[in-house]
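debug: dumping io for the single-chain case to check the tokenizer round-trip. Nothing else runs in this session.
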Amino acid sequence: MLLKTNNLKYIINLKRLTLICFTLFAFNVLTSQEIIEDKKEVAVAETKASVSNVQTGKKVDGVAAVVGDYIVLDSDVQKEREQIKAAGGSVDGIGDCQLFGLMLEKKLYAHHAVQDSLPVSDAEIRQSVDYQIQQFLQQTNGSMERLLAFYNMEDEKTFRDEMFEINKANQLASKMQAKIVEDIEITPEEVRTFFNKIPKDERPTFGTELKVAQIVAEPKVSEEERQKVIDRLKQFKEDIVEKGASFRSKAVLYSEDPGSASRGGKYTLNRKRPKMVKEFRDVAFSLREGEVSDPFKTDFGYHIITLEKIRGQEYDVAHILLSPKVSDKAVEEARTRLEKVRKRIVDGDISFADAAREASDEKETRADGGQLINPTTQDYNFELTRMDPELYAQIQNLKDDEVSLVLKEEDRTGKVKFKILMVTDRIDEHEADYARDFLKIKELALEEKKIREIEKWQEEKIMDTYIKISGKYRDCEFSSNWLKN
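debug: decoded output
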């Protein structure tokens, strides 16, 4: 077998380190260039790297590698290590040579994504940069000057330009790797063959798994409060359309969307890549440039939208979101209603599943008797060691079929809801069983097949791509043939 199963998850995680998309505390210098002839390419790369470093006030360092149109500087390996750790990844047991090899992979993906003309949206990348900068500014109490000093940048434009290049290279790499494996599928027979080749003493062990159900009670918004929000949005529209007020300024001052208010409510939508909820897209795509919509409802509240510009398949829009407020009385009524539901379940008058179908306000789980779906595996099983910490804290002390007390939750917008939970099934830690763990075994088998396809692609592209390794890294023992020996 190509890969030992007990090492498979480690290898998969190692591969995935190359695709961490958000840079939190350190940035690589990414420069594009055209490689002209064999004797000149390193000199060209070093010159460009030196210019870039002078411009950004960084100490000049040498070129460790050239991969197609991309370079890796000597300092980049340590930066990459810090970058992965800052983003929450683990680099334990991964040496500099391994990390350097992963960086070469990312550059190879990005280079061939450009060669294959894989589409990336500059508007979406800039939007991502805007979001990242807002996150960074929270660390410096909103001070751009302190942020630039922290990252040793001359000015905001240089900072944004460098972040743009990093995000673009990461997105290109991600798209290229996705394209390589997009058509890879696996049959049940291949899964069985994969499993049967694993020696019994090397079969993976799966941790304790739980099935969890919940019933949710949400405070009801009064019709008066709902109309109040609609009327306020209508007034905003009137101010903008008839009195010339700035839509963006209104969004900054009044919108309750934390993801867009600071940038004037702006989003870029793409017809081919749905991003917002359907109701939002339907309204946005029906507008003419400069038009402002009437108020409309989504699960997040009430909106008005303006369409600023159409660029092919991309629509630049801005929106203002307002959410109706619930009264203290409505909050207490929701709590009391759920307390009564819990009592009926505990007294044996109704099953948890039937109570969920009858009384839960959560439409996503109501029809399934309140059963939560694991967003990672898309089934009902939650592995205890990988469970969301908040959910784990809520169910960790529950016995099977025990109903939790009524729990209060409040999201970042201040929206309150109440819920009760139950552990409906438990599977203790066990050695992989083909029938019971088919979906997990299938996932491992599919990952191995994808890795084979990626390795095959790499072998071919390494030989077709200009690659130059310099300095100490020529002594590394790479898993791929980067030195073309």
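debug: round-trip ok. The CA atoms of residues 207 and 429 lie 4 Å apart.
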